[in-house]
């Protein structure tokens, strides 16, 4: 039986990359945090210090840590995989309760060796296969292999830019594999569309940032990088709370 049952209990995972977002997600009632750095880049591996402090402040909150060395594709070199394994080991010690990872081959199939390595390193903690599935050549074979190697969940937008666009594939995933793996519908999920997503996909987990642009943030006069002076997004208590209220069982 996969996580997220009974059938009428729908859960919310919120992705965060700052202490402020984490505090707001928890205050709003998030069931789990996906802990990242650099969400503007799609989410990268968080620091050990960040996870350690989150675990100390919120001892009862599940923390699933992203394992992703860099932005871009999900084809990893031997050195990158060595670093990924080191990150898993140290984040386990810091208090992670799960991980989020995905690796593909150059032809878009699941990189079985890389995925098995991370799952073995993370054991006994669960690992979610992330949106690498949305750029896989054949999502069905990729998902079936992800189940075979031991992933406990998959985060997906249905191979489209947003979960709303990918509802048909997400629903097919749920119908075919719901008894083997948790399907998390994510990307563009918010309080105004999540009720429709529940109706259309029948998933038991939804993934959102629940964020808005943070106002009145002082910016450096000189940028430290091309995206350094981009607007900052912060998870809000109200949006998380509205998502949870919409997902609550009738």
From TrEMBL:
SUPFAM superfamilies in the record: CutC-like
Query: MF terms per GO, please?
Result: copper ion binding
In its UniProt entry, the species of origin is given as: Caenorhabditis latens
Q: Which InterPro entries match?
A: CutC-like, CutC-like_dom_sf
Record-linked Gene3D superfamilies: Copper homeostasis (CutC) domain
Q: What is this protein called?
A: Copper homeostasis protein cutC homolog
The domain of life is Eukaryota
User: Which family is it part of?
Assistant: Belongs to the CutC family.
């Amino acid at each position: 039986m996969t996580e997220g049952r009974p059938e009428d209990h729908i859960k919310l995972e919120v992705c965060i990359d700052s202490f402020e977002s984490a505090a707001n997600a928890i205050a709003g009632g998030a069931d789990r945090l996906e802990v990242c750095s650099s969400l503007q880049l799609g989410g990268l591996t968080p620091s050990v210090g960040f996870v350690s402090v989150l675990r100390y402040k919120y001892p009862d909150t599940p923390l699933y840590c992203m394992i992703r060395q860099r932005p871009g594709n999900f084809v990893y070199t031997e050195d990158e995989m060595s670093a990924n394994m080191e990150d898993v080991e140290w984040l386990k010690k810091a208090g992670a309760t799960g991980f989020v990872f995905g690796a593909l081959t150059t032809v878009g199939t699941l990189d079985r060796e890389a995925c098995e390595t991370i799952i073995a390193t993370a054991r006994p903690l669960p690992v979610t296969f992330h949106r690498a599935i949305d750029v896989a050549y054949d999502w069905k074979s990729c998902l079936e292999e992800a189940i075979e190697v031991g992933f406990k969940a998959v985060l997906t937008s249905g191979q489209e830019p947003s979960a709303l666009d990918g509802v048909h594939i997400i629903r097919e995933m749920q119908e075919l594999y719901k008894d083997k793996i948790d399907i998390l519908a994510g990307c563009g999920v918010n309080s105004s569309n999540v009720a429709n997503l529940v109706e259309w996909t029948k998933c038991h987990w939804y993934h959102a940032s629940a964020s808005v642009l943070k106002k009145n943030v002082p910016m450096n006069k000189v940028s430290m990088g091309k995206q350094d002076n981009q607007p900052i997004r912060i998870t809000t208590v109200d949006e998380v709370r509205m998502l949870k209220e919409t997902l609550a069982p009738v």
